[in-house]
């Protein structure tokens, strides 16, 4: 727990969030400023600043994170239609919050709406 980390505060229940999934290791909640009809942030309870800060010891955690993404996609109803998974890394990569998070984006009606500026 990092006192001044917004996402640690959400994990700790000190800051409100629209939770969609929780387990022992991860929580997932709706992004406050969604860039897609469905925009969820999946975060480990452990404070890791970014992909640049993961170590050998986090291999299991990182694998598990994608299984959580699959479960969350199912839960919010985008698993079959499809979705994007994105990590922003560092300020140059668009990362604003320094607590590792996987963006799950989906729910678009058509491909024109889907193409997020700056993303493949
Ligand atoms: P980043 O740019 O760091 O990859 O993404 C951070 C994301 O967190 C942004 O999409 C932003 O809208 C979201 N965000 C920032 N503060 C809060 C908050 O207090 N609650 C929620 N639910 N999302 C937040
Ligand atoms: Zn944190």
Short description:
The protein is of the alpha+beta class and 120 residues long.
- The SSE string, one letter per element, is HEEEHEEH
**Would you tell me the overall average pLDDT?**
95
C-alpha geometry: globular
User: What ranges have pLDDT less than 50 throughout 5 or more consecutive residues?
Assistant: none
Textual characterization of the structure:
This protein has 120 residues and is of the alpha+beta class. The chain has helices at 6-11, 59-75, 111-114, and strands spanning 19-22, 26-30, 38-44, 83-86, 102-106. It has a five-stranded antiparallel sheet, covered by helices on one side. Strand 1 (19-22) and strand 2 (26-30) form a beta hairpin. The N and C termini lie far apart (33 Å). Bound molecules: guanosine-5'-monophosphate and zinc ion. Guanosine-5'-monophosphate (5GP) binds at residues 6, 17, 29-33, 41, 88, 94-97. Residues 2, 5, 7-8, 47, 99 line the site of zinc ion.
């Amino acid at each position: 727990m990092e006192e001044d980390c917004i996402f640690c505060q959400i994990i700790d229940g000190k800051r409100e969030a629209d939770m969609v999934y929780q387990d022992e290791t991860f929580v997932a909640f709706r992004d406050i400023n969604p860039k897609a009809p469905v925009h969820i942030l999946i975060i480990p309870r452990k404070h890791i600043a970014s992909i640049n800060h993961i170590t050998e010891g986090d291999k299991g955690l990182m694998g598990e994170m994608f299984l959580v993404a699959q479960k969350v996609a199912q839960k919010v109803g985008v698993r079959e239609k499809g979705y994007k998974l994105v990590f922003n890394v560092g300020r140059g990569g668009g990362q604003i919050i320094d607590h590792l998070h996987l963006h799950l984006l989906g729910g678009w009606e058509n491909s024109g709406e889907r193409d997020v500026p700056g993303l493949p």
